[in-house]
């Protein structure tokens, strides 16, 4: 029987269609849940009754009344909060713009279907533009910060080694405490210096003869 070729690692596993759809659905759900919490809280504070129109009706998002500005602030805060699940689920800076724009595109479709009309309010589009820009920029920064975190490749922390030896009854001397400043030990034994490039020894040079 012919042997099955193993699947290619890396990008194909990360960009599986089912996984992408699941992530989009989960992020979209979080996006609307956060919006519902914020808008409902603001509505109760204003002494009004909450309704779906404040979430899905673009006519409510107006720039000539205080309620419209408050709703716009809620959507901007919603975009900022959604950076957290993007950081936890996506964690790749180059994929953040795709997911952020997809969330706002789905919101556009949902709003259009709910009101049976495409939004024509300039203020609504400005809020969506600011929301998408904030989610994208902060999301990229957060994912890049996570990607740039230092990682230990085969190194063993000197402090962790001292703790393990102390737990086993080994006394830690002053010289070993001083070695903590070296950070990580990249190997041991012969040729294993603190910088991982081996130990060095000064060799005397014979004087040059006079010509």
Could you give the order of the helices and strands?
A: HHHHHHHEHHE
Biggest sheet statistics: 2 strands, antiparallel
Radius of gyration based on Cα positions: 29 Å
Total DSSP helices = 9
- How many E-type strands? 2
Biggest β-sheet: strands ordered side by side in the sheet:
1-2
Secondary structure class reads mainly alpha
From the spread of the alpha carbons, the general shape counts as elongated
Rounded average pLDDT: 77
- The proportion of residues in beta strands is under 5%
Low-confidence stretches: 177-196
Percentage of helical residues? 55-70%
Distance between the termini: 80 Å
Give an overview in words.
The termini are far apart. The protein is built from nine helices and two strands; from the N terminus they run H-H-H-H-H-H-H-E-H-H-E. It has a domain at 16-147. 57% of the residues lie in helices and 2% in strands. The chain has 211 residues and is mostly helical. The protein is elongated. Strands 1-2 form a two-stranded antiparallel sheet. The longest helix has 29 residues, at 17-45.
Short overview:
The chain has 211 residues and is an all-alpha fold.
Which properties best describe this structure?
mainly alpha, 211 residues, two-stranded antiparallel ribbon, 57% helix
Structural topology:
Blueprint (H helix, E strand, L loop, with lengths): L10 H4 L2 H29 L7 H4 L9 H16 L1 H7 L6 H20 L6 H26 L8 E2 H10 L6 H5 L5 E2 L26
Antiparallel strand pairs: 1-2
Helix pairs in contact: 2-4, 2-6, 4-7, 5-7, 6-7
């Amino acid at each position: 029987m012919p042997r099955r070729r193993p699947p290619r690692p890396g990008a194909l596993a990360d960009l599986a269609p089912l996984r992408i759809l699941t992530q989009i659905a989960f992020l979209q759900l979080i996006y609307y849940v956060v919006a519902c919490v914020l808008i409902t809280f603001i509505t109760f504070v204003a002494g009004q009754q909450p309704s779906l129109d404040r979430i899905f009706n673009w006519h409510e998002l107006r720039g000539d009344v205080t309620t419209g500005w408050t709703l716009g602030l809620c959507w901007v805060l919603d975009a900022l909060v959604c950076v957290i699940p993007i950081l936890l689920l996506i964690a790749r800076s180059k994929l953040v713009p795709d997911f952020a724009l997809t969330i706002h595109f789905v919101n556009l479709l949902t709003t259009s279907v709910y009101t049976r009309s495409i939004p024509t309010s300039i203020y609504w589009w400005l809020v969506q533009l600011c929301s998408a820009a904030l989610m994208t920029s902060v999301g990229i920064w957060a994912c890049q910060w996570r990607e740039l975190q230092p990682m230990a490749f085969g190194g063993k922390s000197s402090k962790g080694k001292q703790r393990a030896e102390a737990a086993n009854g080994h006394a830690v001397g002053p010289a070993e405490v001083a070695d903590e400043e070296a950070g990580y030990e990249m190997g041991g034994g012969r040729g294993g210096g603190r910088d991982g490039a081996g130990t060095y020894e000064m060799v005397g040079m014979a004087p040059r003869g006079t010509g």
